[in-house]
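Dear Dr. H.,

I hope your travels went smoothly. While you were away I took the liberty of generating a structure for the chain from your last submission, since the lab meeting agenda had it listed for discussion. I wanted you to have the full record in hand beforehand rather than looking at slides cold. The sequence, exactly as received, is reproduced here:
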Amino acid sequence: MTVLVPVDLSAPTRAAVALAATLTQALAGEAVLLHVAPRDPALAVLARLHQLAEPFRALGVPAHLRTRRDEPADGILAAARELGADLVVMGTRGRATGGLTHALVARSPTPVLALYARDPGVPDNLVRGTIALVDPGPTALRVAHALSTATGAFIRSFRLRPARSGWTLEPADGIARARVALALLPVAALPPPELARWNGAALLLVHDPRPRPTARNDTRARGK
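The corresponding predicted structure, in token form, is as follows:
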């Protein structure tokens, strides 16, 4: 299992790195931290980028940094293809259509997890917290169960619904609201331009390019 983690020196990257370290450990994988920019980073920047691997080292997860001269979306897609990456984990600022998250989701044949979080301590918040699943596909289910195993978080099904002040989560079973630490939902359910209206828990937007299983047709019922 190879997890590709695009990195820069932003707050969204720090939050995504912390979650990616916990997830990669739970999946018994290895991580490649990738910095893509049109120019090579200065030595001072490179040193700070290397420090981003510390959460992986602390958990005993193999991780190393690569740099690439390219436009971000092109470079990330090319690296994912060359490495045979199984998963891309990145932070997002929730910018409007045209941003990096949108570009990757539109083009990536590899599953992408885009974390939108104001608090970098997502793994700590998951301990005995709740992971909310909204219309999950195969990747979301696998990620949720891996994080649950690693942190002891509970998994519950939720619905996404509009509210006067933005978007909110509603338990699918109607039972009282739980302390949601992380919500996993398809990126199409709440695209980046809508994230500005989100005031809840950390969000993990999931792009799963693999087709979902569908019910098998009962040909006998059709008399065939």
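Two observations you may find useful: The first helix runs from residue 11 to 26. Confidence is low (pLDDT under 50) at residues 215-224.

With kind regards,
E. W.
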